[in-house]
Design goal:
Elements lengths: L18 E9 L4 E9 L2 E6 L6 H9 L6 E6 L2 E5 L4 E2 L7 E4 L11 H9 L11 H8 L14 H13 L5 E5 L7 H17 L3 E6 L2 H7 L2 E6 L2 E7 H5 L13 E12 L4 E5 L6 E5 L8 E7 L3 E4 L10 E12 L5 E8 L2 E8 H7 L6 E6 L7
Parallel strand pairs: 3-9, 3-10, 7-8, 8-9
Antiparallel strand pairs: 1-2, 1-4, 4-5, 5-6, 10-11, 12-13, 12-15, 13-14, 16-20, 17-18, 17-20, 18-19
Length: 377
């Protein structure tokens, strides 16, 4: 299988320049966007936040569709915008692909002709993605002769992403591409988006208000609130912070980049090891090859704590942990407890009553229990 590799602009070289330098200050009547971050030059960066946080406005600034009063944008060494020079590269000259909530395919063109529309406008010498590569990556080979009106929502979005890739972008912008889809269609397209994460050598900015999508797709997470950046960093680090609004969410938890250590075919249980540790967890999952990297998620609400290791329990995952912190939860009856498991942070949501009964304090050693059926991998 071919891996798509789109080289950065040759203007500036060196690993230090494989970053996105993003600074925008944009004042509206009742909203102010004020963002200044450096993001990875490859992989998926999720822009996450609730409605009105500024996600789409930031994406539009990056695309050049909104003109910020104070701005600087450099994509892997190539300057696209700098208000202090001043310099502004028009949208049509920015090597980017943009996919919106609606696929916006040309209704009068077949899938193949939709794909060729942008592809033909790229000079052959500048094409970094072939038609065959884009079609294979998005799994749309059987759709070439169809008209957009005969595609499902998930199929339309896959075609829209393939069309964007065929413009050989140096940056791919995805603005809530799953928002208009029902859960069945989301589950249909998510595996293809995960392939973008692993097989594209270009940066992807993915806007979403779905934490589940962020966990499955993102390498880096930018948390936005009212136009400002609350946090920016690797998704695992940001998700484990108790001082952020996400920790108060019902689906709060941590993301762990583990590795497949084994599979019990009789019980369909996959063993996933923790990074830098001999400890592992059992997950209800089909077989996956040994040593395959695999991300899994442990929700705070699915962790219970014990002072001693249970001798007999239906809960398979028993993990030795140390209490490293505590913070109040959004529910007055609950607290959030931060735990350290051999260097891997975990979060547990328990009642204040349980906290007091266990006498929890920083430095205390406990056993954390996690149901195998509760783990998300």
């Amino acid at each position: 299988m071919n891996t798509l590799s789109i080289a950065p602009a040759p203007a500036v070289s060196g690993l230090a320049d494989q970053q996105l330098h993003v600074r925008f200050v944009l004042q509206f009547a009742q909203f102010r966007l004020d963002v200044d971050v450096q993001l990875p030059g490859r992989g998926v960066t999720a822009l996450f936040g609730y409605s009105g946080s500024g996600k789409t406005t930031l994406l539009r600034c990056i695309a050049g569709l909104e003109r910020a009063q104070d701005s600087h944008l450099r994509i892997n060494g190539e300057l696209w915008q700098d208000s202090r020079t001043p310099f502004f590269l028009p949208t049509h000259k920015r090597a980017l692909g943009y996919v919106f909530q609606e696929a916006s395919l040309f209704a009068h063109l077949s899938v193949l002709d939709n794909l060729l529309y942008g592809f033909k406008r790229i000079a052959p010498a500048e094409r970094q993605v072939t038609l065959e590569q884009a079609v294979e990556l998005l799994g749309i080979g059987h759709l070439m002769a169809r008209m957009p009106g005969h595609l499902s929502g998930g199929e339309r979005q896959r075609v829209a992403i393939a069309r964007a890739l065929l413009t050989s972008p140096k940056l791919l912008l995805l603005d809530e591409p799953l928002a208009a889809l029902d859960q069945k269609r989301k589950n249909e397209i998510l595996p293809y988006l995960q392939r973008l994460q692993t097989q594209l050598d270009i940066p992807i900015l993915y806007v979403s208000h779905s934490l589940d999508e962020v966990v499955r797709l993102a390498d880096h997470l930018v948390l936005l609130d009212q136009g400002a950046v609350l946090a920016s960093g690797p998704v695992g680090e940001v998700m484990a912070r108790m001082d952020l609004p996400m920790a108060q969410a019902e689906d709060a938890g941590v993301v762990v980049e583990g590795c497949v250590a084994g599979h019990n075919s009789a019980y369909q249980l996959l063993s996933l090891s923790f990074p830098g540790s001999t400890l592992s967890v059992q997950v209800a999952h089909a077989a996956v090859s040994i040593d395959t990297p695999m991300r899994f998620r442990i929700l705070a609400r699915d962790i219970s704590l014990n002072l001693e290791r249970p001798a007999h329990s239906s809960i398979l995952n028993l993990l030795p942990v140390t209490v490293s912190g505590e913070t109040p939860a959004d529910n007055a009856a609950h607290v959030l407890v931060r735990l350290d498991m051999h260097g891997t942070p975990l979060l547990a949501r328990i009642t204040r009553y349980s906290r007091d009964q266990l006498g929890l304090h920083v430095g205390q050693q406990l056993w954390a229990q996690v149901k195998s059926v509760a783990l998300l991998a």
